[in-house]
Structures are given as C-alpha cells and as structure tokens.
Structure prediction request, 988 residues.
Amino acid sequence: MAQVKAVGLIGGGVIGAGWAARLALNGIEVRVFDPDPEAKRKIDTVLENARRAMAKLTLAPLHESAAIHVVPTLEEAVAETDFVQESLPEREELKRDLLAAASRAARRDAVIASSTSGLLPSRLQADMAGPERFVVGHPFNPVYLLPLVEVCGGATTSPGTIEQAIAFYRSIGMHPLHVRQEIDGFIADRLLEAVWREGLWLVNDGVATTTEIDDAIRYGAGLRWSFMGTFLTYRLAGGEAGMRHFLAQFGPALRLPWTKLEAPELTDALIERIAGQSDAQAAGTSIRDLERLRDDCLVAVLQGLRSRNYGAGATLNAHEEKLYETAHRRVMGNGDDVSQPLALHRGRVAPDWIDYNGHMTESRYLQVFGDSSDALFRYVGIDADYHAAGKSYYTVETHIMNLREVGAAEPFHTTTQILAVDDKRLHIFHHLTATREDVVLATAEQMLLHVDIKAGRTVPAEAPILARLQRIAAAHAALPTPDGAGRFVGAPRR
Amino acid sequence: MAQVKAVGLIGGGVIGAGWAARLALNGIEVRVFDPDPEAKRKIDTVLENARRAMAKLTLAPLHESAAIHVVPTLEEAVAETDFVQESLPEREELKRDLLAAASRAARRDAVIASSTSGLLPSRLQADMAGPERFVVGHPFNPVYLLPLVEVCGGATTSPGTIEQAIAFYRSIGMHPLHVRQEIDGFIADRLLEAVWREGLWLVNDGVATTTEIDDAIRYGAGLRWSFMGTFLTYRLAGGEAGMRHFLAQFGPALRLPWTKLEAPELTDALIERIAGQSDAQAAGTSIRDLERLRDDCLVAVLQGLRSRNYGAGATLNAHEEKLYETAHRRVMGNGDDVSQPLALHRGRVAPDWIDYNGHMTESRYLQVFGDSSDALFRYVGIDADYHAAGKSYYTVETHIMNLREVGAAEPFHTTTQILAVDDKRLHIFHHLTATREDVVLATAEQMLLHVDIKAGRTVPAEAPILARLQRIAAAHAALPTPDGAGRFVGAPRR
Prediction:
C-alpha cells in the first residue's frame, strides 16, 4: 500500500460520516456508499461540525480539504481506493456480505477495514477474497476528534496489513491500539459495555435515572479517565505503597456485590501479574510524580471545562463566583481613586494560547490588551446599549513590546494608563504583568478613534463618557510617561 | 448544624488526607485521628500537592487556609467539631466500630459521614448513638480536585441530615449527587467496579496488559466521560434519531458476549423508561446542539491535555508537528523569484473572529501576521527539528496600523517584506489584504530576535537560514519602504 490518497467508505452513518470528515480534513479523498437517500445531507452536517471543531482545536495549517463523493454503488466506492473502511450496523451477516463484495471490487493491494465495535475479525473476513488484507479499525464517536482506533486482526490477517493500518491511522492523527488477542468486544468495548450494562441495570431496577448515572461519572472518575486509565489511577489510590497495597486493601471488595459482574479470583499469580504490569506501566516514575502529573492534567481538564461552563467546569465556576463575592467589585463612583493606572482586567493563560515554543502566542497578547481596553470602556460606562446605538471605539494603531515569555495557566493582570483623550481620540498605554512573579510581560500603546459604525466615520464620544475619560486622563497626567511610549519599531533602547 | 468551622476526620490515608487538604484550603479547621505514626508526614505531602494544584487551578481569592491537627485519639478528633468524616479501609466491622465510638464522642448535632465506596449506610449506622445524623459522603481521589461526592442515607438517616451534608459539601466546591436508593456500590462504584472487574478479567485471561487497557479508555471514551456520561453520549451516537434509534441499533449487541456482564432484557418498558429519562436529560436541547457542546468540550479537554503533552494531548501535539512540517514545506530553491514581497499566507475570516462590532477582532489581525511570520520561517527552512533543537525567532516589537474593517468569511492574504536582517535580528513588514476587494486591511512592522530558548538569550541564526533570509533581504532592498514603517503611535499621518 503506497501513501493513501483515496478511501472508500461503506456506510455513511454517524461513524462513517465521522471517518469521511476526518479523512477529508486530512486531505484524503473519500467515496462513500450508503443507500440512505439522506446520506449526503447527513455527511455534510457531520463535516460542518468537524470543520468547526478543527478550527477551534488547532492553529496548525490543515491540509487542503479533499472531496467527499457519495456514490451510488459499493463498487464505485471501493474500486479505485487505497483503503476501504466499513461502518455498517453491528449485524454480522450484513457486514460479512458487504465485506465479501468489497473484497471482490477493491484493488488487490487495498487494505479493507471494519469499524465494528466488537464482532470477531476471523468471522468477518471468512467470505472475503484476499482475507489477509482485512483488519478491524474500531474508532470512537466523534471520529474526527477522538484519537483512539483499536486495530485487531483475524486468523488469516497478515502482519503487514496490521502494520499498514496502524501507519495509516497514525498519519491521520489517531492513536492506534493494537489488540493483540482477538476477543469479542476487543478491549475498549468490553469496558464500555460493562459500564453500559451496569447502567442499564440501575435504570431497570429503578435505582437511578440516566442523568444521575451520567453525573456519577462526569463529575468524578470520568475526569481522570480523560488521560489516565483505571489501573494507573488505582496505583495512585494505593498511596506511597502503590499497586500491591491497593490490591491488598481493595481486594476484599472484589467479593462484595458492588456490581453484577463477578470478579476473577485474586490469586497470588494474578496479583503478581497486575503488579508487574503496573510497574512496567509506571516505567520508574514515582507515585509522587505520577500524582503531580495526574493533578496537572486534572487542572488542565477542569480549566478547559470551566471555559465551556459545563459539567465539572460549571462546578468550578460556581465555586469561584462564591470566592469572588467577597472580592472588591469596582463600580466607578465619583469617589474612586484613579490616580494610578487602572487595574481592570485579569485572567490566566489558557492552554490553547500556547504556541510551538511552549509560550503564549503573540496574538493572545493583543487579545489581553483588547480585553483591557474593553474593561476600560465598561468602567467609564460604555455598555451594550451604547454599542447598539452604533457608537464604539475602534483601534487604529498599536505598538507592542514583548518583554518576557509566559507559559500556560499563569495568572496575569493588566493596568491601563490614559496618555491623552480628546472628543474623538483616545491614546492609552497598557502593562501586562505576570501576577505571581510580578514581572511585566509586555506593553501596548494604542490609539483609538470614536466612530459611528454605520456612517463609517469618526464622531465625538458622548459627553458623560468623555467626562469620565477626561477625569482619569487628568489624574494620569501626573504619572511618568511609560517606557516605550512614542517608540517606533527598531528604535534604539533607552 | 451551623456553618461548619471544624471537621473531625477518622482515618488519614489517601482519602482522609485528601479531605484534610480540601477542607483546610477552604478555611475549615481539621482534626485527624489516624494511628499510623507516619500520618502527619503523609497528610502534609497530600496538602502540598493540593496547594500546588489549587494555585494552578484558580485565580479566585482562596480562603485563608486553616490548620490540620493530627490528634492521638478518635475522641479528640470528633469532640468539638461540627462535621465528622470517616475514611477507613473498606471493612464493615472496622467502620461500624469506629463510627459507633465517634457517635458517642461527637456533639449531638454533628453530622457523621462515611467515605465508604459502597458499603450500605443502614448497616454502618446500626450501632451508632443518634444514627439519624449518619450519611454516606463518598468522594473520589484526589478529593481536593474532583468535585463529585455521592450522598446516600441509610434506613434511619433523617432527611435533614442529607440536606445538611449536601449543603456542606457544596460549600467546599463539590458536586453532591444524592443517591436516592440505597444499594451496594451506590451509583459510581457500580460502574467503576464493573470496569475494574472486566479489566481484571482481561489481565487474568492474558488478553491485554494494564497499559493497553488504560490506553483503550484514555485515548477514546475517557475523553468524553470527563464531561458527558454514557447515556447522553449514546443519545448522540444515535445520530439525528436519538436514543430510541440507538437502542434499536445497539440493542441486539446487548446479547453479544462483549463483556462478562449480562445485560437486562431490553423490554419495551425499559426502552420507554430510558428514552423518557434521556429526553428529560437533554431538556429540549437538539442533537445538533448537543453534538456541538460535546465537540467544544472535547476541544477544550484536548487542548488542556496538549498543554501537558500527555495522553491524547501528546497525540495532538505529534499530529500538529506533522501538519506544520508538511503543509507549508516549500523548501526554498535558489531559483525562486524573491524580488517582490512574499505571499506565503492566506485564509478566510473565521466566524469566531468577529467582535461585538461585527468585524474581525483586533487580536486576530496579529494572529494572521504571526502566522505570516511562521510561514516565512518555514519558507527559509525553520522546521520542527530546528525548534526541537531549542532555536526560534521571538517577536519583541510590533506596530500595527488598522486601516479597514473586515467581516466574517472574507478571504484574505498577506505579503511579507524583509526590511533588514543581521545574525540575530530580523525586521519585517507585513501587509494584510482583503483578496476579493484587493484593499489593504492592516499593516504590521515587527522586530524579531533569534533566541536559544533554554538559555533564554539571543544567539545567531544558523548559517543556511541566515543565508536565505539575506538573499531575500538583498532582493527586497530595491523595494520602496512601506507606508507606516518607522512610525510611532500617534505620529502625524503623511
């Protein structure tokens, strides 16, 4: 198999459409066979979701996206493609029939993969021509975002096919996991199916609702599972003594009726096997370092979810709001002391602000300065009504000095000084400071014009706004001119 | 129970110490009884982890942290406290005995809670004095970061006790989940235990290692579980047709041997119950909006993990590196015509780049200019290996002129002119142009320094890179100086 340029998809449902989107956005042409007359529309909907998600996910230059053709026959989907991916419903007969048909229509060197969640590859490949090029490639929904794909060969699959599939999936940004021993449900779905069936029992027996069962995961263990599986997590639950201690402490619970699933007997041999594999997994990293790795990842995940105000992120937001309730809330009264630069904006460097150098990327500096200008506008009374009336300040000129780098999650704050204001112009200077170290990261000097948005021309700011800006400017006139004000790019340093 | 000022902890292991840390950092005094002579040291270690994590997690003004006292007797731990939390090993006899002792030593109005993962509250409270104030409060490790706590009363627990416990846990930033029906393992551990036991079988049967089992979760379903449970996830897996369709499609798989756990029979009544509860859970949000919520959360989680370069975050990093390498790899040949400003970057204004004025927000201008600088670097041969060797150009100064507004979906391109280059400095000038109207939207003049990232100082660029930059600069020397070069903010317009 040479480099994959075109993939044939059999089935364009949720999983097939997810494959189509991941492939097309990785520059690989796709031909889909799905008899559903709505297939094209449904695939386009998934593609639109995928485009939207990828635009948010990465700043990296994506491949030029390739075409997705919905074709009327299976043969047209697979005939001229390098790789075939079947994503039909989980009915063995159906899959076997169409995989056999695909094997006769596809090129002899094309790998033919199935997205099955758990049907045995040895059975799926039984009727195929050239069954050695068949392999399971089991993805997870949404296929365009989740990296896992389980790769599992059947009795007649060649080792080369498995290698080719792994290399191909990796080339489109996935994490292939080789399931070395063929088993119903592979690895992931054995675990997922256990959770699903236990959950169904809880609903069936009236113990809990679907909402309660979901909440029991997403506010707790689910947060850990986004980066660390059960075995490594439990190694840490054993504390300093690790996995053997955990098994000694929680071993007896395996005999308790905490699930409808019976556990295997925890023999000495099994304990040794688990502890040995767990040692290999930890690869010499101490419990303490693993704890900090876990905590750093949890913090990153919680902060990510806080930005969406969802699940555990909403819990964190609510708790922070309570903590802030006691904090000073500034509403500008006549009595406010405005003799110093105004500290109106603060935040924390978000994980997605980081560039390939590991530091906050340059455009985010300007975002922080822009947010600081917005905070100044709110402070002097420019609100949504003001904007709705078609009035606003527009930035026309900015000069940024980058003084220090800053990494993810660092808290920062800004201060804003008014250098000059007249009825249409506002000349300001921001400092961005890393709060913990108290060092200036960058400065920005900006000129803004007050505009009538619809008319597209400058107009005087409204009187109360102007009066407040002037009062601050008058107080700030006593401050020294900031370092860098009036500077042009490349001017000699003072 | 008034506002809780002091909590008595019975047991200072991984869970007890986690409670101590969460409580102390929320300003609540803690008294711990644990006969382990190492208890104090172990608790201090967990507290240190917790302090470190909280400092990264939130900027909110935390409570002044309260003292943690390790005391020699159970009585001293509980006598003067408002709330008692027991976190002993999962042995019913042991817990019963110490809970009974605590019930006699504690104040009559103190709530007494157990951290048990799954023992029945009706049995744990049986020997207590005042068993109506007993409740299960089951947390998750690390207790100081994970918000979930399952709250479950026993046969003699009063409703007021449950209310008090829920209010208390919420006040310390947790998400209390009321387990309404007493059951072994409650809700969370029934699911966790099913995963754990299925995983043990896989190791026992030699199907997979602990590493492979963990990877089968953390690169796939685990990412979803950090914000969305199985039921809502599967509602989305059903596509536009939702939960009923999913049950119809995957119902037959419940009879397949995909786990050792037998499923309940999927009767019409059970389907109706699940679908009804799932509808209530979705609360009218469409499948499409839920998909986007899911995707936004996945993006946030993946970006968080990318910042830690761990698990799926490491997969994303590796894929981005490949994209950076390949997408813009135009290896500069000697024959390239570089007499004009270089057109190396183009794109389209994304919908989420638009601000409250309806135009591209100012920080995105700098993003486009930064992307143009990156395109120049790649053009002259600076690649991931170069960055991996710790060398990079850093922007130190930027001057932007905003000339025209631009709306969503507009195509744009940039051109880049080299004004000057020496071994450490690079002085460039970008134009951003709206492609359709061919009008200049903004310009940026930038000074960059070539740095050794680890050493944190400027160093000369490597010879081949410098030679290419110098060849371009020599050609660009014949071009006119761009309008705005050398300008400072507020200078009179020419």
Notes: Chain A is about 40% helix and 20% strand. Chain A touches chain B through 195 residues (CB under 8 Å).
